Model the fold of this input.
Amino acid sequence: MRWLLRLLRGRALDRDLDREVRAHLALLTDDLIRSGLAPEEARRQAALAFGGVEAVKEASRDARGTRFVEDWWQDTRYAFRALRRAPAFTAAAIATLAIGIGANTAVWSVLDALVFRALPVERSEELVALRHGAPSDDDPSYLLSYPELGRLQDKLPAAVRLAGMSSTERLYLADAERTEPLNVQLVTAPWFQVLGVGARRGRLFGPGDQSGGDGQAVGVLSDAYWATRFGRNPAIVGKVVRLNGVSLTISGIAEPGFGGLTVGSPVDLWIPTWMQSEVRFLGNSSARDSDTGKPWPPQNGIAWLTVVARVPERIRQRTEAALAAQYRAEVLEEYQNSDSTERATALRETLALQPVAKGFSPLREQFGDSLRVLMVSVGVVLLIACANLASLLMARGAAREQEIALRVSLGARPGRLLRQALTESLTLAALGGVVSPLVAWWGGLALLRAASAGPRPVPLALALDARVLGFAFLLTLATGLLFGMAPALRAGRAAASGQFRAGGRVAGPAPARLPLGRVLVASQVALSLVLVAAAGLFIQTLRNFLRLDPGYASEQVVAARIDPRSAGYRYDELPLLYRRLLDAVGPLPGVRSVGLAMHGLGMTGMRIGGIRVPGVSRRSDVKGQGQENFVTPGYFATVGMVLLRGREFTEADREGTPGVVVVSQSFARHFFGSEDVIGRRVGYGEPWFEIVGVVRDARVNAIKWAPAHLMFRPLAQGPQEYVLSVEARIAGPAANIARAMRAAIAQAEPRLPIREVVPVSDLLERGLSREQLLARLAGVFSAMALLLAAIGLYGVVAYSVARRRNEMAIRIALGAVPVSLWGLVLRGNLGVIASGLALGLGLWLAVQGLIRNMVYGLSPGDPFTLGLAMAVLALVGILAASVPAWRATRVDPASALREQ
Amino acid sequence: MAPDPLVKPDLLQGTLDMLVLRTVADESLHGYAIAQRIRLVSGDRLAIPQGSLYPSLRRLENQALIKGEWRTSPAGREARVYRITAKGRKRLDAELAEWRELSTAIGLVLGTG
Done:
């Protein structure tokens, strides 16, 4: 406190001291006069006895203890003055820093939200999920059935409560005004208690909501959804709404910030698990010896709940042991009649606790690595920018040699000069840093949009909070030190060695004066090469994927994605619905033909079944699985899938006639080898289906996925299947036809929700969002790096030319031709470019492994890409060096020599 | 004129601070008087360079061991007069005790104690 007072009263204290020293001298002089000296002589003697007045004042100021801050303030003001004197340099530097720091912060904000941040619940490190599988499993499963959950809970210490959650699905919420899709998750009653999430309003689930015995259907809204859909209207609590047609009372609003455990996929509404069959919820599940058409909660064979618990570290081992024991007991009981190998296989699996402090996130799995690569890339861009600023500051420092020489001779200490130079760079960095959050905010949102598949942006909560701003602050500090250190050290060292002399003149090949500058430029070239090469690879990867033949005419097929199950259509209504859909879309202008499919093209939802061939023993592993779909007659011709053998489905294939299937090439090869499969039988058991046709392999789900083993069945032979896609082959502008299709379907079936109507090629491109993000951003970052490196090279060459003005003038005076001068300067800098390229190549070889599984269709060491990147950099480098080199040839010898 | 000083300008900071503190412990004095007093009491053996007094006074004042205020002398000269604070007195006692201890110890080793 007193220190602060002294700091603030610095000037007043200075005046006080001055007064005191004068009083002291006056008293001393008085005494000396009294002892008989003449006043003049007395004053002289007094001053001698006192010593250097200014030195005493300096020492007293030091004693005040506020010196550091005062110097800093002085340095800062000095830095501002210096920066104001060079407005162009200052503006360029601040802009570079703002963009550099802002871009880094933007990538960080997304990376942090997706990868590093813990869930917004208290003591999130205690949260665990029950995963089962063999300990070495790469792809463990988390799903358990509702009865399993209950049995496990009984065996656990009382302190450990389990809570189950379903996958999050889009259902339809209707109030008096409108119907809207929202993300719904089914949870067991202790859900909010286990997570430690409280109610913002109303009440959350209690024991009474577990069974639904009292028939009271309730739901809890997330705070975010309450805000966007209901405008935080408090009257909503207690209101009755309809979810997929089922009445439901909104009992409460959850704590702000909580949106479930899946990062990037927030839940809007939680309902109790018992409502599964009421709202016709059919989310992720794995079924065995069970009927998915009946209510799920009582069935032991349907695993559909991810079970989480709060288990403090100290009881984790005990809990895990209890779980494993119970799991083992259940397996032994279930497999008591199986043979020993099957039992042994089953016993390899176990239940374990998986910490989920950061929640689950498919987005994290999809984008985590890419974001890390982008974080490094954008960091490299900032590094290159730092190198530029360091070069510029050094050039400025060299230009201020005379000023520094003067200050050294006036007694400035080297340390002080060093600190002053650093203050200048930190001031610059701070100015850039202050602007950077704006860039970061905008950039973060742009990044999310770039990463988003489809019309809705990724719902990831980006916040300019302490973590993000702290990152920006640290980065600013590091940046300032990084680009300021070299010039500051140089100034300090030069001052210490008395190297500066007034009017220093340089002759001969001067570039050696700035070896550090040349090292910086070579590193810039090297780093840019790495970024350009990476961008080239990512762009080609995207192109390779886009060039892949999906096995159907994705450009000419428009898919309308519908959801009759959520709308509550009964099984007996389906045939009529399907007839109406075909009749509504078929006659539209531009539509050549139309078909229906249970799972549409470009949709990642699928049904996997264990396929058997009569007479061949069952294979229970992944190798025995096929992907089943139901389609209408003429479907293959409509979507452009090529029939290789046999026939399409016809109207004659319907309920009551023998079951038939069309399989894909890889299905046929997988289950029958090279045999002819037409007429062979296949299926899940009796009754078998006869194979009537074979289609060419197709990437029906996503372009990135290898063709699956497909088995198509006629929709008429599966009349209870819900069709999710209406697909039309078009001739004409897709957008117009899509609009017409939507209108026609809405008119024919007003109660049928239409999710969207899009060309299948659009759906396929969404599956490439990671590749697009990488290609786009790596492209942008490498362009930035290239530009910065070019500016850096230009600066260094321009500087060396300026310093060799005299030499150039003499050469011209002696008759050198411009071309030879141009070549002279350029040759001197080719070495820098070449060594930068060599360095970059080495760097690339060292880091290429990091992106090995992000490229497709070529290797990270692809010689063409690398060669192209090197050529681009060499060209840019030579161009950047040519401009100042050319300027050297324009030196007017007379004026240049006169200037001395 | 002052005799050749025994104490050089690089007199240990802490020692000078202690001398100043001890000097103002008996009565309030201004800077010039403090210098005179030290010289007088030491029998002209300790003549501190007058300028180095002021950094010492600032240090002591910053630690709130002494307090300075402007006064006008009977002769009409204004001067900043320092007096010891309660905290300063406590510190002085502690420093003196330590000093005695140390000088006794050194005396014993040197064989003069």
